[in-house]
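Hey, weird one. I pasted the Glycosyl transferase family 1 domain-containing protein sequence into the form twice and got a warning about non-standard characters only the second time. First submission, copied straight from the form history:
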Amino acid sequence: VVFAWRTLYRVLDWELVVGLVGWILRLLAMICRRPIAEGFLALIERRLVLSGWPHQSPGWTNLHLSRFVWRVRLHLMHRRKVPKSFQETSHTPLRIGFVGHLSGLLGCPPELFEACPSNVELYIFDIEFQGRLASLEHVAAKYFPAKVVDMFSEPERVAPLAAAINDSNLDMLVNLEWRKPAYELLDGVTTPCIANYSFGSDLVYHEKVDVQLYWQPEADYLIRGSQLFCCTDERTVPFARIREIRGFYDQRDMASLSMRSWRDREPMIVFHGALNKLQEGAYLSSVFDLLVEDENLQFIYMGKDNDIALRYVTKRAKRAGVEGRVHYEGKFSFFRGEDGTIEDPGWAKMVSYLQRSRLAPDPWPMGGGSSRFEAYLAGTPSVHMGLRVDRASWRHRQHSVCELPCLLVPSGTAETIQEYLRLCRRCLYDEEFADKLATAQLNVAKLLSDPRPWWDELLETYQEVRGSKLN
């Protein structure tokens, strides 16, 4: 079995195979007299890259196939690549640039850039997101707002942004973009050191990326030093240099919350985040089992619906006989206004429910990141389904498809559904355990909202990459 996977992944890595698939897609487009390549590649992504194939649940990314699909896409694109520059010395202070839709990224709030150390000169290339800019002029040596909404509809529209980056003569560029916009932008960038900041488990496979800043490993892809180890073919992944980082989370307006004890909370279970995470039957069944056991428990959930999840939860609640104690309280927004505060009333409602509830169970197979962090900040005990990495778990479906090591609290982490339910019950009924777990998780949240270690890691990464290039 292992040999078969090694053979498949080795064949997918061949440039000849990438070119052959690209040629076939072009030929089919000529025969059909319409473009079909993107539709075909998108189908492959849905069925094989993001579906959990071959061993995991939906939400898991097959990195080998993801890279193959992107290499075919790049083969079909009319690329305008310029070479990277090489410099033996760095500027003093060090010039580091960030490019992306900064107003829409939870992991890059203003507080992170305001903590930029004195030995770094900050360059911000801010792409408009839903009509918003992050407005970071006050912290950057250079702030370049890219306000063209359809900037990436045509490759040439990226030229002004790439030129602004190149004119800045940076020592390091941190890419916060992904998918096609990232590839089109990096084609035109000459910065000698480029780091891709991965907000999920997938990577940006552009040949100019020197290092992947990575903090969400997934099942069957283990971090080993500066590389990923694939458990499917039991070999080191050859196409990515990894730097595991701790990440950073935005406290928004939750920093001043006072922590309520178990006694001051109500018999409520709360979920907030993308509602599609509630479509996993085992997780929702576990929550409803708790409601069946205790007729005083209420389940509150908030988040944006995808036109399927809300109906699914309602149907499952009726089937379990708990529909009267399952309440959808609408969606919320975390976007800040011009004064830096969150104006959406749904956000305040969500925070209130977190403060009042005794349990905020993390969903699986795709767990939460910001939602767990917010539960930690609110002092609400959160139980997490952990990811196994022992050899017995290789090539076997796990309850969880990915992990955030920075958020792990062992006393609140389970590996089986039975253990998950046991920890949930302890949070609901064991006052001492619940308060102790909430305190431990709050301490983790405080560490993750300190930007200084994040900058230290970034500067260490630059020195490592630069040292390897010079050597």
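That's the output from the first submission. The warning seems to come from a hidden character in my clipboard, not from the data itself. Residues 2-76 form one domain.
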